[in-house]
Design a protein that fits this description.
The protein is mainly beta and 140 residues long. The chain has one helix and nine strands. 9% of the residues lie in helices and 53% in strands.
Length: 140
């Protein structure tokens, strides 16, 4: 669905979940990574930190808001398998779209799986939120 000229698109993200569904949503949050820092000092130094090095990488959950899916049943089944200890991890692609529905930026979430799904509260949305756990995000 392409917006008419001069309108602001309401579904400006496209999330592709291989073998499951394509989701259009109005907002995505959690596309950030954090790295712990490790302070290093020489063994004979009492106070001074000589060097900081990168430690473990951490990432929070990705939250999709106000979602329309091309296959609602597949999303529900994917979630159901996750809560019954049969987690199916998938590398998903998240695209920010311009007003012509062309991708501007892409991210990839590695080994993502749904940990929370909230049904839509209006005729405009299939899901109000979908929360995805993952093992990292990179920009493609």
């Amino acid at each position: 669905m392409k917006p008419t000229s001069g309108t602001i698109p309401t579904l400006c993200f496209r999330v592709t979940i291989p073998d499951t569904a394509i989701i259009s949503c109005s907002a995505v949050s959690g596309l950030d990574l954090e790295c712990d820092d490790i302070s290093y000092r020489c063994g004979d130094s009492v106070i001074n930190i000589r060097l900081k090095i990168g430690g473990l990488r951490r990432s929070g959950d990705i939250t999709l808001k106000r979602c329309r899916a091309d296959n609602v049943q597949a999303i529900t089944e994917w979630y159901d398998k996750s809560i019954h200890a049969n987690v199916q991890r998938r590398n998903i692609t998240i695209e920010l779209l311009d007003e012509n529905q062309d991708p501007v930026t892409r991210w990839r979430a590695i080994n993502a799986w749904p940990k929370n799904v909230t049904a839509g509260d209006s005729a405009d949305t299939d899901f109000e939120t979908i929360v995805l756990a993952h093992e990292g995000v990179d920009e493609k």
